[in-house]
Design brief:
single chain, 127 residues, mainly alpha
Length: 127
């Protein structure tokens, strides 16, 4: 997929959501099959509004990456730069809800996930 600047806005949202979801799904050291299914189902649903095949195809390569919280925050900041302030708040809300559902997809919210999620929410609130 390459650089986020080379793709359409809906794909940017899906790309950042997928990366963010994977980051939190792997935060406890276990990428549960239910977390994976939730992320894939989310991407499938969004395919109705735009082409997201590249994002889905890159899920496996995203798994191999070890993004940091700063990487995830930076990706969110870059994404938001494409949108008006009112739309930025909607996107932040969608991402917060998405991450909450990813974290809870395996029915266990671990301390690592909770601490990182608090830091991430604080950081994106300030964006």
């Amino acid at each position: 997929m390459g650089n986020i600047r080379d793709i359409k806005p809906i794909e940017k949202v899906v790309w950042v959501a997928a990366k963010t979801g994977l980051f939190f799904a792997k935060a406890d050291g276990i990428y549960d099959v239910r977390e994976k299914k939730f992320i894939e189902d989310f991407i499938d649903k969004l395919s109705a509004v735009g082409p997201v095949d590249d994002v889905k195809a890159e899920l496996d390569s995203l798994l191999a990456k070890n993004d940091t919280l700063d990487d995830i925050i930076g990706g969110t900041k870059d994404l938001l730069s494409y949108f008006a302030p009112v739309d930025q708040e909607v996107i932040k809300d969608v991402l917060r809800k998405f991450v909450t559902k990813v974290i809870n997809a395996d029915f266990v919210e671990k301390e690592e996930e909770t601490l990182l999620f608090k830091e991430w929410k604080k950081a994106i609130k300030e964006l």
